[in-house]
Amino acid sequence: MHTDINHYITRSTQQDWQPLVEKGIHYKGIFVKSLRYDEDSQRSKTILLKFEPGATYPYHNHPAGEEIFVLSGEAVLEHATLSAGDYLYTPPGFKHSVSSPIGCMLLFVIPEEVEILG
Hints:
InterPro entries: ChrR-like_cupin_dom (IPR025979), RmlC-like_jellyroll (IPR014710), RmlC_Cupin_sf (IPR011051). This protein has no helices and ten strands. By secondary structure, the protein is mostly beta strands. It has a single domain (about 15-115), classed as Jelly Rolls (Sandwich).
């Protein structure tokens, strides 16, 4: 374990937004910044996501659940609209899609990789 706290700080304002690409699929209008990369699993477990107006992420499953905090804008999950300041915990096995008619920025904690369905 590193004993210097600076090792654990992510300066998100010093990172560029990257297009969201998973398993070779580019999700147009969705961008990501990694906040916490897990070396053991070789994936980011805490991320920022930015949805441009009208962007959608397909129906998917969260094998280990997820946590979402809306930083700005609005996101629609299963006909529920989340606005800035809203928090959502979905339990393991919860399935849904995500869209953002006006755009949004979200903080995601995702313990395990999602499974795209259908």
